[in-house]
Each structure stands twice: as C-alpha cells, then as structure tokens.
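Dataset card, provenance and construction

Sequences and ligand SMILES were collected as paired inputs. For each pair, a complete structure of the chain with the small molecule in place was predicted and serialized as structure tokens. The example below shows a pair involving pyridoxal-5'-phosphate. Curators did not alter the output after generation; any descriptive sentences attached to a record were derived from the structure itself.
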Amino acid sequence: MITQENFKEKAGQVVEWIDHYFKRLRELPVKSTVKPREVYDRIPAQAPLQGEDVGAILDDMDSIILPGITHWQHPSFHAYFPANSSYESLLGEMATAAIGAQCMVWETSPAAAELEERMTEWMASAAGLPDGFKGVIQDSASSATLVAILTARERATQFTSNFDGVPQGLRVYCSSEAHSSIEKGVGVAGIGRNNLVKIATDAAQRMSPEALEKAICDDLAKGLKPVCVVAAMGTTGTLAIDPLTEIAAICAKYNVWLHVDAAFAGTAMLLPEYRHICRGIEQADSLVFNPHKWMFVNFDCSLYFVKDTSLLIRTFDILPEYLKTATHGTVNDYRDWGIPLGRRFRALKLWFVLRGFGLEGIRQRLREQITLNEYFAAQVAQSDELLLLKPAFLGFTLFRAKADDDAVSEKLLQAINASGKIYLSHTKVDGRFAIRFHATQTYVQKEDIDKAVDTLQYFSKQTGL
Ligand SMILES: *Cc1c(COP(=O)(O)O)cnc(C)c1O
C-alpha cells in the first residue's frame, strides 16, 4: 500500500520510470508490432488478492505494456495528427489527478470553473478570435461538434426536439472531405446520417460554396429544413481550408448554424502570419480546435468556442433537486455547456502549458516545426522516387511514390511502418493513395526529420520503386 509516509518515495520511482521512458524513446520502435491478444494473454486472468509493490507494476510496464504501445510522443511519430504531450502538461495532469475534482458545477470547485473561464479567454485572445466568442473545454473535437449540432438542432426546432423527439427532415452539410465525427454526430443527434449532405469540393479539396447553396436550395424546395453547416479549417486528409467567408454568407442568408471544425489547424491561429486561414470566422456560430493535437497539452483538451451561450445552455441545462445551488445563474456551471455531468479539471494542464511555455514559447515551437516540415517537403520534392502532392503547409506534407501504380506507395508505407523506425499514415487524394507526414511532435528535431528522409530513401530503394 502507498501511504502518506512512503508516497514521495513511490512517486519518485514512477517519475524515474517516466524520465527513463522519455530519454530512451528515440531507441524504441515507434509503432508496436504485437499481434492481437499478445498483451491480453500476458495479463493474469484474475486481479491479485494482495497488494503489490509499485516496483513490480513498473517491471510489468516495461515487459508487458511498452511492447504493446505505439509511441505517440516519439519524435518519429509522423502519422495521423499528433496527440502531443509535454513535460509541462504531464505535471499539470499529475496535479489534476491529485486534486481529483469533479468540475460539474461552480460550487464543486470554483477554481476549476474560473480557471477554465480564464483559460478560454486567454486562448481566444491568443488565437485572435473576434469579440463575442465564449469558450468551454470539451473532451474531444468529436464531442464539441456533437454539441454544436445539437445546439443547431434545438435552435432550428424552437427547443422542442429535446422534449418531443427529433422531427423528420432536418439537414446538415459538410464537405465530402470532412471528418467522420460529423457523420457520427448527425447520427447521434437523431437527425439521421442520411440527412448529412456531403458537398462537393474544388481541386484543392475545399468545400464548393456554389454546391453548398444549391444543396440548401434543393432541400428547401423539397420541404426539408437546413440546420447546420460544418466547415473544415484543415481537413484530416489534406488540411484543406474551406472558404469560410463565402460559406458564412450562405449560412446567414438561409439562417443556418455555422460550426467550424479546426481540430488540428486551429492552433495555427496563434501565429499572426497564419490568421488568414480563419478569415470569416467572425461570422461563425461555433468553432472547435484541439490543444491536445498541436499545442503540447496531453489528451484530452478540446476548446469549443460559441457566440451565443444562451442557446448552448438552453440546449443542455437540466436541474434536478440534488444539483440545485445558490449560485446557479450567477456563475458558469459548465455541466450545462456540454453533454456529461462529470467533468475533469482540464484547464489546469492548459494553464501549466501556457505558463510554462509562454505564448511566445509555443509560437516559437510551432514555427520551428513548420520550418522542419518545409525542410522535409523540400527533400521529398528533390527525390527521384517520391512525388510531393501539395506544398508543405502547417507542419504537414502529402506525397506518394512517383510510380503510377498505387500499390507501390502502399507497399512503401507498409515496409516503413513495419520497420518501427518512423510511423506514417495515409489517405486518398482524388481517389489516389497518398502518404501523410507531419513534423509536429512536441520534441521533434532536425535529426528526426533527417532520419525520416533517410528511412524513406532506404525503403524506396528496397521496394524497388
Ligand atoms: C482529429 C480530428 C477530429 C477528431 O478529433 P477528436 O478530438 O479526436 O474527436 C475532428 N476533425 C478533424 C478535422 C480532425 O482532424
């Protein structure tokens, strides 16, 4: 048992383990190679009857758990989008776990509610958001987008759907490149996945405003009810930025809620030289972006900004007797700003990161990563075997093998990922296989990018491109 007397010693063992983990990360294979059930079979079928020592648990961390981990904090993790941590965030998370507060209403921890309010203000200001947006921290962009869709649904149905059920014929729009969380959200919201209209994109994978307006008009002509448009500020496949100004004008014309999904790319708003990506944002009703992707705050920390908090709160508030407080209505009770009642104290790790790095420290790291990625893309552009598909953008590069046959790119990706040296993922662009790369892991350095280039070159030759 760990007690007050021996806590520091035991915690020291865990901190030692973590320190050692970070120091040897570069030597570990970035992608786990275990087979299904391999980890499961090594874990005893029953819980131990007697307590065990931390040392024994840490030994098993090394022998059972680590081989089954794909190391998201590895500087050679270039797959998907990052789920970054940092030393600052980790320490904030430790303090959060120590306090272990349930931050459902102001009274259950006033500091949690008020720090959350301040942190969202800091972030709105740092990102240059126009006045009028109020923020709340959600667990994920998926949840924030669901919250936006539900609020839009309630607004469009005069707040009756929550009580009477969802009427038929509501419609939501996003581009054909939008994230799967939107389709999931539309289904969960009871609108029905078949009522999500996927709008065609232009040659740069951006939503076509003309196609959007036509789809809305066609639906209106059929007696259907447009409720919400979800625009992407940085799609997952290619980081396409939908034309917000034009989309916002259409939403205003037809009185449709505009939600902006900026899960990864939203962090770039911290850089004044990239603010152009959010031109038109002042017209949006809501926006989400994830400090847990590209702002060195470990999962989960998703910032949801909304203009009209009264619509949000009216969608979610519910007040059973046991939750009545004297302060209700005069403070932010965040359980009314989203789906779950219980909430983690997520603002604390954001505070640790913002204070530990400072805004300029964060901006500097983002710019370094953008430069590292441009360096990577330049090597791809010079390669005899590889084809750069788009200019480097926000720490992200898209490429494929020059060979006409997509199977070559696929084979290259498989060989690289199986090697454990670096980890990449893929998408399809215009129906063709494309390899995604990002240089946005918190502690990535030039040596890691050189390793990625060398690995690509080595396996390009191996797979005989
Ligand atoms: C990653 C991503 C999401 C999902 O984010 P979660 O926080 O994991 O729910 C949604 N939209 C886009 C564009 C993304 O890149």
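Derived descriptions for this record:
Residues 145 and 182 are 7 Å apart (CA to CA).
The domain at 359-462 is CATH 3.90.1150.10 (Aspartate Aminotransferase, domain 1).
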